[in-house]
Amino acid sequence: MPSRGLPSAACHVVVTASAGIAITFGVWLVRLFVRTTLRKPFGTDDIHCTIATFCGILNSALAIGETDHGLGQRESEIAPWIVRRQQQMAWVANMSFILALCFAILSVSYLLVRITKLTSLVRVTYAVPIATSLWAVVAFCLITFQCKLPDPWDFEPQSRCIDIYHTWAGIVIANAVLDVGNVVAAIVLVTNIRIPTKTKVFIIVLFSMRLMYPHLTHVMPGEEH
């Protein structure tokens, strides 16, 4: 039976978001433990990783909160003020989602900058953060002002909003391209380091795993009900 009297779809959101929070925070704690154990100073990559972690946790927490405000239910069965509150929470969650993606990419980029001493590669790795920052500004503005003021979170009527589906498609595709940029930089870095081939392959696979992130499974605003 669904917990808290929630419909099945909402329960799935709660379980998935809760697992995401636990895993995300756990991974951050492991990184913190490793960093303090090695007694290495915190760098720009650690700062960006921390911001990305808590933006991701905020996004998942808001998704859980949305289930108490109609997420997973038919809009016709929910009071208008509850629908409005859920739309507002989804709007903030989407902005935190953009920030989480942005700082996650920046964290990887600055990690590469931190460990490489190859001048040509440093230029490449700095190109990704610059492009990521520009992407984040554009994406953040598009989502913030997705619908006309004074209610940018309200999709009714849809004629007052941008084409949100294609907007999100463009955002996640551009984000994937930036992730590929970091993977390419990592490959160039590894091929210029004298380490065993098995270690090189492992490092490349590790960085490439970021490309498995299911960007396109993100719930599109306006489709929650």
Automatic annotation (TrEMBL):
Pfam families: Fung_rhodopsin. InterPro entries: Rhodopsin_dom_fungi (IPR049326), SAT4-like (IPR052337). Residues 30-211 form the Rhodopsin domain. The keyword Transferase does not apply. Keywords: Membrane, Transmembrane, Transmembrane helix. Its main location: membrane. PANTHER family: INTEGRAL MEMBRANE PROTEIN-RELATED, PTH11-LIKE INTEGRAL MEMBRANE PROTEIN (AFU_ORTHOLOGUE AFUA_5G11245). This is Rhodopsin domain-containing protein.
